[in-house]
Design goal:
heterodimer; A: Rossmann fold; B: Chemotaxis protein chec; 7-stranded antiparallel sheet
């Protein structure tokens, strides 16, 4: 079976590059999306995506809206989604947890912690 | 609580947010008493608005290219200024949440130009920062507190801090 890719959803090109670099150095394949709507389209189209790292504050569709849309689709019921954001607000974390997120990481991220979380979630998926 | 009192409480939080942000990228900035940004080349300015039940306003974050370029590395500078603004205001948001003040953020926008000087009504002096090489940054706070704004006396430590993670 082909290795699953990780979808990185963030409106900042720089953050996508940083996250992608960390993931590629960790041996993972990466797909990028610039906002929640783009991310949702890629999740629906690309069956090789096995996990999603997603920002919250983005234009068009934010990360929580994308997460909720993903969970409404039975095909993606078990797709692990981790929020990667500058936000740390308990109410938002709670909303993400209830919507089915698997984790929450506050930027700036530490590459080793990110890779450990990705490895754990991909093994569990 | 009147505006000068609110500013007196929030300015140190904004200052700490800016200094900590650059520290996290290995750049030591300290608050400076200078009154303008050194005009070395064009300025980059990131702006973010925020709203909340007790406080609304905006924050503008500007700098000469050097410290921003150091942090951005090979990344596109304009895009990185937007992300730095986002991360700085995110830090301020967490600090405000810990004193019981909740705000919601807009997405950042970036301006480029020379001699950028926002002058909102009753705008207090910006916060200035400098490093040992003379690179400068400044942060303008434009705050509109609601009449009933109060800061919690007991810090709320529930909010996740920068670099922290929570797995469900």
């Amino acid at each position: 079976m082909a290795a699953k890719k990780i979808l990185v959803v963030d409106d900042s090109v720089s953050v996508r590059q940083q996250v992608t670099l960390a993931l590629v150095q960790g041996g993972y394949g990466v797909v990028e999306a610039g906002d929640g709507a783009d991310g949702l389209e890629k999740i629906n189209r690309d069956t090789s995506i096995g996990m999603v790292l997603c920002d919250i504050n983005m234009p068009r569709m934010n990360g929580l809206e994308m997460l909720e849309a993903v969970r409404r689709d039975a095909r993606h019921a078990s797709l692990p989604v981790v929020m990667l954001t500058s936000e740390g607000q308990p109410a938002l974390i709670d909303r993400a947890k209830k919507a089915g997120a698997k984790g929450w990481i506050v930027k700036p991220f530490k590459a080793d912690l990110l890779l450990a979380a990705v490895k754990k979630l991909l093994l569990a998926a | 609580m009147i505006l000068p009192e609110v500013e007196a409480l929030i300015r140190p939080l904004a200052s700490a947010a800016c200094i900590e942000l650059f520290e996290s990228y290995g750049i030591s900035m300290s608050q400076s008493t200078q009154r303008s940004v050194k005009p070395s080349g064009y300025l980059l300015c990131g702006a973010m608005g925020f709203v909340g039940p007790q406080l609304k306003g905006s924050i503008l974050f500007a700098g000469t290219q050097e410290p921003l370029r150091q942090v951005a590395g090979p990344n596109p500078l304009r895009d990185w200024v937007a992300e730095l603004t986002n991360q700085m205001v995110g830090r301020l948001k967490t600090k405000l949440l810990r004193v019981g003040v909740e705000i919601y953020l807009t997405t950042p926008v970036v301006l480029r130009g020379e001699h950028i000087v926002p002058l909102p009504d009753n705008c207090p002096e910006p916060l200035f920062f400098a490093d040992e090489q003379g690179s400068t940054l400044c942060v303008w706070l434009d705050l509109e507190p609601a009449p009933g704004l109060e800061f919690a006396h007991t810090p709320n430590a529930d909010a996740l801090g920068e670099g922290e993670e929570l797995m469900f």
